[in-house]
Specification:
heterodimer, A: alpha+beta, Arc Repressor Mutant, subunit A, three-stranded antiparallel beta sheet, 55% helix, B: alpha+beta, six-stranded mixed barrel, 22 strands, 52% helix
C-alpha cells in the first residue's frame, strides 16, 4: 500500500465519505477505494478510521445501510446517502468551499 | 431526525448487542475478503493475498474496538460489561465476597442501628410539646453544686420579674395510688403551677387544661388533668373522662381535661399521666406545700423564651434576678442559677443519660473502623494474590485504566451489596431493640433509621473500597507485566522489606483496634450491668399501698406480719420480705447523710454545706428482705423485729457506702446521721449493724450505689412497701399464690391489694443481658474478622516463599530448618507487630478516654485475649503453610511454579 498520503484534516473524513457515496451505494472497501480515487490517491482511509466513521454517520441518520451482494458475490454491507445525508453533504460542501476560498484568498494575498 | 435515529441506534446497541456485534464481524470479514480478492487479482497467491489483506487492515480486533467506541451508548455498554465481568470474577472467590460483604454490613448496620436507638431514646425532645427549642430550664446552684429544685417563693419572684421569658412554670412529680369508679393502681402525678401547660404549648384533646385560676390556695374545686392514654385505660375515652372523679391517695378530684396523645409532662425520665395544681398537693399528701419558705424546695422550673429573646438574654436576666434574691434573703445567700436550653432532664440527668450514647458512639465508630480495616486487609491480600492475573491481562493488551476500572467495579459491587445488607441489618436491629425494649423504656419514640449516620457508614464503606481498588491498581501500574510474570508473583525472593512492613503494620493496627474495641465493649457491657448485685431469677415483687389506703401504723405492722407469716407457710415460696424500694430503681433519689458530728446545725438551710454530706439511697427493710432479694450480708447482722421504735436506731450499709464514709475502717458500730422529716428519730444517730453487697440501686446503667437499709419499724412514715418473694429453685411464684397471700389477710378491705401488681425482676434485667450478649458477639466477630484478615496476609507471605523453600530443600536443608526459618520470621514479625500494637493501643486508649469520659474501666482480660489470639493467629499463619511447604516434594513445587 502507498504510504505517502496527506494527513486528514479534522472533519474532512466525514465529508469525503458523504461525497464518495453521493453517486451510488458502496460497501466499506468500495468507499475506501472511491475516496482514494476522487482524491487522486492523496488520501488512503484505513479501516481503523473508516468503519468508526461509517457507523457514526449511520447512527446520525446521514447514511443508511443494507446487506447486498458485492462484485464477487460476497455478502457485504452497502452504505447509501439518505435525504438527510444529502442535505448534510450540500451544507458541508458549501461550508468547505467558503473556507477553501477564504484560505486561498488569504494565502495568495500579497 | 438525527436524534431519532441515534435513539434507535442506542436501542440496538444496548438491547440487541449480540446482533450488532455479529453484524460488525460480518462487515469486517467481508472487507478483508474483498481486499484479499483485490490482491489475488493483482497476482498474489490466495494465502499471500489473505495475509496481506489482514496486515493492511491493521488488526481486525483493534478496528472493531475503535468502531465500537464510535457507537452511541458505548460507555453504558462498557460499564455494564465491566460490572458483569466484575460479578463473574467475584463469583470465583465466594468466601472473600461473603466475608467482605458481611463485615461491611455489620459495620454499616451496627453503627446505624446503635445511633438510631440512642438518638431516638435520649436525644429526642419532649413529645407533644410545641417548639421545644424555645424552652429553657433553670436550676438553682450554690457555687458549682446543683441544687435541682427551686423554692416556690424564689420561683414566684423569678416568674414575676423576668422579661425575656414569655412564661415560667414550676413542676415536680411523685408516685401516687389512684382509684376511679372502676379501676385502681399506681401512677406518676405531676403537680404544676398555672403556667405549666401554656409554657409547654400544649392543647387539650378533651376538656381544658389547668390555668392560674386552678392553682391558688383558694381554688373553687380540686381538679386534675389526665393523660390521653390514661383516659383510654381508665375512663374509656377522653370525652367520657371529663367531669368524672379520680381519687389520688384517697383524695377525690374532678377530671377537667385530657392532655394530647403522647404527652408525658416535662420530665423525660418520669412519664406523667396525671397533672394536678401544686396547691392541692398539701391536701392530698398531708404535707402542705410551703409557699412562703425560701428553704423548702418545691420543684423544677421551665420557661419559654419570649419572642425575639434568646438563651443568652434569659441567662443574663435570670442571673441578675438570682443575685438580687441572694442579696435580699438570708436563706438565698450564696445561690446562683444555671440556665440551659430545652427541658425534660436536669443537667445531672443529662450527664448520666449521655454516658450510654457516648459509649455507644465509641463502640459504633470502632466497629465501623474495624469493619473497613479488615475488608481493606482482605482485599489487599486478594489483590496481591491476583498480581499475576492482572499482569497477564496487561500483557494481553488491556489498558491500565481498564484494569483499575475492573477493580473499581468489583469493589463497588461489594460495597453496594454491603450497603443493602447493612440497611437491612440496621432495620432488623432497631426493630429487635424496640421489641425487647431494652435501652429505653419510653412510649412514642421515633426509631426511623438515622439517615446521616447511615450515609456516613455507607460513605466510609465506599471510600474504603475505592482506596483498596486504587492501591493494587497503582502497584500493578508501576510494575512492568513481564517482571511480575517472570517473578512468579514474588517467589524466589525473600519477602520484600515493604511486604514485611505491611505485616507488622497490619498486626499492630489490628491489635490497636481490637484492644480499643474490647475496652469500649467491655465498658458498655459493664454499664449494662451483668451483675446487679443479686440473682433476679425467680424473684417477684408485689407493691402494696397500705399507706395510701390510710392504715395507721399499728394496722400496717399487723398487716405486714400476717402477710409474711402466710408467705413463709406457702410451699412455692423460698423466702419473703418487705422493702420500700426494690433495686434497680432509676427513679430513686439519694438522700444526704452525715458522719456523726458533721451534720448541719438545727435549722440550717436545706442545702447547707453540701461538702460534708454523702449522697446515699435509703431503703426501708423488713427483717429477711435482704436475704429474700439475695443481697449478700458480709458483716454483722440483718435487722430484726426487735429493732422497732422503742429500740435504738440502727442501719445496714452497702460496701460502697462503708468505703465512702469510713475508708479503711471497720464500719460496724459507726454512727450515721440522716436529718430528714421522715425520720421519727429526727437527728438521732443510727448505729451501723451490718454490711451488705452493692446493688445497682439507681438503675442498671449506673455504677453500684452507696445504699443504706434501715428497719421499717423505725421509719414507718415512708408509707407503701413492696413484698418480695423468691420462688423455689429459680421458679417464679405463681401470681395466684401472690394474690391469695395478700388478699386473705386480716384487717385490710379489698382495695389496692386485689390489684397488687406483680413484677418479675428477671424480666426487667434479661433484655439488658441480651444487648450485652449481642455486643459481646459483635466484639467476638471483630476479633474473628481481624484474625481472618491477618491470617490471609501472613499466609500469603509464606506461600510466596514456597519456591525459595523448595530451592533450599533441594540444596540440602531439612524440613526442620525450613520450618524454623519461616516460623522464626513469622514470630519476629509478630513480636514487632505486637510491640507497636500495644504502644498504639495505649495511645488510642488515652485518646478514647479523653473523648469519651465514660470509658472508666479497662478489662485486662479482654486486652490480654486480643493479644494472645492475634499472636496465635499470626504464628499459625506462618506455621501451617511453612509446614506444608517443607513436606511437599521439592520438584513438585519447582515444576509447578
Amino acid at each position: 500500500m502507498p504510504s505517502s498520503h496527506t494527513p486528514l484534516l479534522q472533519g474532512t473524513l466525514d465529508l469525503l465519505i458523504l461525497k464518495a457515496l453521493s453517486l451510488e451505494p458502496l460497501h466499506g472497501l468500495g468507499v475506501s477505494r472511491r475516496v482514494e480515487q476522487i482524491t487522486r490517491g492523496a488520501y488512503v482511509v484505513r479501516p481503523g478510521s473508516l468503519f468508526p466513521a461509517l457507523h457514526r454517520l449511520e447512527e446520525r441518520g446521514w447514511l443508511a445501510a443494507s446487506w447486498g451482494d458485492s462484485e464477487n458475490k460476497r455478502r457485504a454491507k452497502f452504505y447509501r446517502l439518505t435525504a438527510a445525508g444529502r442535505r448534510q453533504l450540500a451544507a458541508e460542501t458549501d461550508e468547505w468551499r467558503r473556507v477553501a476560498g477564504a484560505m486561498r484568498a488569504a494565502l495568495e494575498a500579497t | 431526525m438525527g436524534a431519532l435515529s441515534r435513539l434507535r441506534a442506542l436501542w440496538f446497541n444496548l438491547v440487541h448487542r449480540r446482533e450488532v456485534d455479529a453484524a460488525l464481524d460480518d462487515e469486517l470479514r467481508a472487507y478483508v475478503d474483498l481486499l484479499a480478492a483485490d490482491y489475488e487479482r493483482r497476482g498474489m497467491s490466495p494465502p499471500e493475498a489473505r495475509r496481506a489483506a489482514l496486515v493492511a487492515s491493521g488488526g481486525i480486533e483493534q478496528v472493531k474496538e475503535s468502531t465500537r467506541d464510535a457507537w452511541v451508548g458505548e460507555s453504558i455498554a462498557t460499564a455494564a460489561r465491566t460490572l458483569r465481568h466484575a460479578a463473574r470474577s467475584l463469583g470465583r472467590s465466594p468466601v472473600y465476597v461473603i466475608t467482605a460483604v458481611l463485615t461491611l454490613a455489620i459495620g454499616i448496620g451496627g453503627a446505624t442501628a446503635l445511633f438510631t436507638i440512642v438518638k431516638g431514646s435520649l436525644l429526642r425532645p419532649l413529645p407533644a410539646v410545641a417548639d421545644p427549642d424555645r424552652l429553657v430550664s433553670a436550676e438553682p446552684v450554690r457555687g458549682s453544686t446543683g441544687l435541682y429544685d427551686f423554692s416556690y417563693a424564689d420561683f414566684n419572684d423569678f416568674r414575676t420579674s423576668v422579661r425575656s421569658l414569655s412564661g415560667l412554670a414550676l413542676y415536680d412529680g411523685t408516685s401516687m395510688a389512684f382509684r376511679t369508679a372502676a379501676t385502681s393502681g399506681h401512677t406518676w402525678v405531676s403537680y404544676v403551677t398555672g403556667d405549666f401547660f401554656r409554657v409547654l404549648g400544649v392543647h387539650p384533646s378533651a376538656g381544658r387544661l389547668l390555668d392560674s385560676a386552678d392553682v391558688t390556695p383558694h381554688a373553687p374545686a380540686p381538679v386534675a388533668v389526665i393523660g390521653y392514654e390514661f383516659s383510654y385505660s381508665h375512663f374509656g375515652t377522653p370525652a367520657r373522662a371529663i367531669g368524672r372523679t379520680l381519687w389520688l391517695d384517697g383524695y377525690p378530684l374532678v377530671v377537667v381535661g385530657v392532655a394530647p396523645p403522647q404527652f408525658i409532662g416535662a420530665m423525660a425520665t418520669h412519664p406523667m399521666q396525671v397533672w394536678i395544681p401544686l396547691t392541692i398537693l398539701g391536701a392530698i399528701s398531708n404535707y402542705p406545700m410551703p409557699l412562703e419558705s425560701r428553704t423548702a424546695v418545691s420543684g423544677r422550673v421551665v420557661g419559654r423564651l419570649a419572642p425575639g429573646a434568646n438563651l443568652d438574654d434569659a441567662r443574663r436576666e435570670l442571673t441578675v434576678i438570682a443575685a438580687r434574691l441572694a442579696a435580699t434573703y438570708p436563706d438565698d445567700r450564696g445561690r446562683g442559677v444555671r440556665v440551659y436550653r430545652g427541658a425534660g432532664m436536669t443537667i445531672d440527668e443529662r450527664a448520666s443519660a449521655s454516658r450510654m450514647p457516648q459509649l455507644l458512639a465509641a463502640a459504633v465508630s470502632l466497629l465501623l473502623v474495624i469493619a473497613c480495616a479488615n475488608v481493606a486487609n482482605l482485599s489487599i491480600v486478594r489483590a496481591s494474590a491476583r498480581r499475576r492475573e492482572l499482569a497477564t491481562r496487561l500483557a494481553l493488551g488491556a489498558s491500565r485504566a481498564s484494569l483499575v476500572g475492573r477493580l473499581l467495579a468489583e469493589h463497588a459491587l461489594l460495597a453496594t451489596g454491603a450497603a443493602v445488607c447493612g440497611v437491612g441489618l440496621a432495620w432488623l436491629l432497631v426493630r429487635w431493640s424496640v421489641m425487647v425494649d431494652t435501652i429505653v423504656d419510653m412510649a412514642g419514640v421515633d426509631f426511623t433509621l438515622d439517615r446521616r449516620v447511615l450515609a456516613l457508614a455507607i460513605g466510609a464503606a465506599l471510600l474504603t473500597m475505592l482506596l483498596v481498588s486504587i492501591a493494587p491498581a497503582l502497584a500493578i501500574g508501576r510494575v512492568s507485566p513481564s517482571a511480575v510474570l517472570k517473578d512468579g508473583g514474588g517467589a524466589g525472593h525473600r519477602r520484600s522489606r515493604g511486604q514485611r512492613a505491611l505485616v507488622v503494620v497490619q498486626v499492630s493496627a489490628s491489635l490497636v483496634l481490637l484492644m480499643s474495641s474490647s475496652i469500649v465493649f467491655g465498658a458498655v457491657r459493664r454499664a449494662l450491668a451483668m451483675d446487679i448485685g443479686f440473682d433476679p431469677r425467680g424473684l417477684s415483687t408485689a407493691f402494696l399501698s397500705t399507706h395510701d389506703e390510710g392504715l395507721d401504723s399499728a394496722r400496717q405492722v399487723a398487716f405486714y406480719r400476717t402477710v409474711l407469716a402466710r408467705a413463709k407457710s406457702a410451699p412455692e415460696i423460698a423466702a419473703a420480705g418487705f422493702i420500700s424500694t426494690v433495686p434497680p430503681a432509676p427513679w430513686a433519689e439519694p438522700s444526704s447523710v452525715y458522719r456523726r458530728g458533721e451534720e448541719p446545725p438545727v435549722g440550717a438551710p436545706r442545702d447547707y454545706d453540701a461538702g460534708a454530706a454523702f449522697h446515699v439511697y435509703v431503703d426501708q427493710v423488713y427483717p429477711g428482705a435482704l436475704a429474700a432479694i439475695g443481697i449478700p450480708m458480709f458483716r454483722g447482722r440483718d435487722v430484726a423485729l426487735q429493732d422497732d421504735d422503742h429500740a435504738p436506731p440502727v442501719a445496714i450499709v452497702s460496701r460502697r457506702m462503708a468505703e465512702e464514709l469510713w475508708p479503711q475502717e471497720d464500719p460496724i458500730g459507726k454512727l450515721v446521721v440522716w436529718p430528714t422529716n421522715h425520720n421519727r428519730f429526727g437527728r438521732t444517730p443510727m448505729r451501723v449493724i451490718g454490711v451488705v453487697g452493692n446493688t445497682r440501686y439507681s438503675g442498671l446503667t449506673s455504677a453500684p450505689a452507696a445504699t443504706m437499709y434501715v428497719p421499717y419499724a423505725q421509719h414507718m412514715d415512708f408509707g407503701n412497701l413492696t413484698l418480695v418473694l423468691r420462688g423455689r429453685r429459680g421458679a417464679l411464684v405463681p401470681d395466684s399464690v401472690v394474690r391469695s397471700i395478700v388478699q386473705l389477710t386480716g384487717p385490710v378491705e379489698a382495695g389496692p391489694m386485689s390489684t397488687a401488681q406483680t413484677t418479675h425482676i428477671a424480666g426487667t434485667v434479661e433484655p439488658q443481658q441480651h444487648v450485652s450478649a449481642w455486643l459481646g458477639a459483635v466484639g467476638s466477630i471483630a476479633l474473628l474478622l481481624s484474625a481472618i484478615g491477618l491470617y490471609g496476609v501472613m499466609a500469603q507471605g509464606v506461600q510466596q516463599r514456597t519456591r525459595e523453600l523448595a530451592v533450599r530443600a533441594a540444596l540440602g536443608a531439612t524440613p526442620r530448618t525450613l520450618l524454623r526459618l519461616t516460623l522464626g520470621d513469622g514470630v519476629r514479625l509478630t513480636l514487632a507487630g505486637v510491640t507497636f500494637g500495644v504502644l498504639g493501643a495505649v495511645f488510642s486508649m488515652r485518646v478514647l478516654r479523653s473523648m469519651f469520659t465514660a470509658l472508666d474501666f479497662i478489662d485486662p482480660r479482654a486486652c490480654g485475649a486480643a493479644v494472645v489470639v492475634l499472636a496465635a493467629v499470626t504464628v499459625a499463619a506462618s506455621y501451617l503453610p511453612a509446614r506444608r511447604a517443607s513436606r511437599i516434594a521439592v520438584m513438585d513445587i519447582l515444576r509447578n511454579d
